[in-house]
Amino acid sequence: MDLEKFFDTVNHSKLIELLSRTIKDGRLISLIHRYLRAGVEINGRTKVTTEGVPQGGPLSPLLSNIMLDELDKELESRGHKFVRYADDLMILCRSKRSASRGMKSITKFVEGKLMLKVNKEKSVVRHVSKIKFLGYSFYNYRGEWRLRIHPKSLGKMKARIKGLTGRSRGWSDEQRILYLREYLTGWMHYFKLADMGTKLGQLDMWYRRRLRMVKWKHSKSKIRNLVQLGVSKYKAYEWAHTRKSYWHTAKSWILTTTLSNDYLKQLGYPSLLAEYKRVCVTTYGSAVYRTVRAVLWKVGTGINPVPPIRFNLRNQIFLRYFSSLSSQERL
Q: What counts of helices (H) and strands (E) characterise the chain?
């Protein structure tokens, strides 16, 4: 379930009501209310905000969780197993039929009691293996559920690398290496729980071909550089004047042997697979992770439930996961 424009549609009156239940200091409530209504400046003019919480502000994550704490309590009271991180929510049900009923009921509660709007396009009833949650997806391997990267997340990463290795960018090797390392380090640490070694190995070949294409295009003295890398003068002259495209030449033997993987590594270019292996974390078979039982429904079998399966998740990536745990416990 996804809430549409959550941070922009938080009802101030409802939020102040929830805060007043536990905060008895009227001055603090008044200060928070003034913070919410401080407004934004658009084209030199200040516009008063009547709803929503300012994104990027220090109080926004706290206030949003206070607002959605009512939803957590409602799901607990109904006995649902669910995961919520900010405004992203995944509810686990025993069958597709019960999931459809729960979707209608929870949507009515969110829009009626919390005065928020549910995104009908992104909120769907699906098998857990077809769900995208925080960029991750799930798959079953020999009876054990594991994490993997969702294809959309992988596609976004590929598009970003394509932009950083574009031929039109007039960057030096040092600049390009810096930007690639900054992006890949953050990306790998976020998705280090996913099983994606095979996919990154395949993507590494495409990534290195992009690097060879850029270096070939930006090389001003192709003949001299090829000769310095061990190519004969005849072959260097032949390939320096080739009519083939940069992308086609990047896969030729002349560049795969001269601008080899070791050569790119010596220059300082990061390897996708090597970076992943350096930071990846095993999310199964380890005592440092909490094992949570989830009941999943099987596609095509109606309301017949699948027996409880071990569902391993690292507790730090999700804000809350309520399963067989007590209602007071938090991940």
A: 14, 9
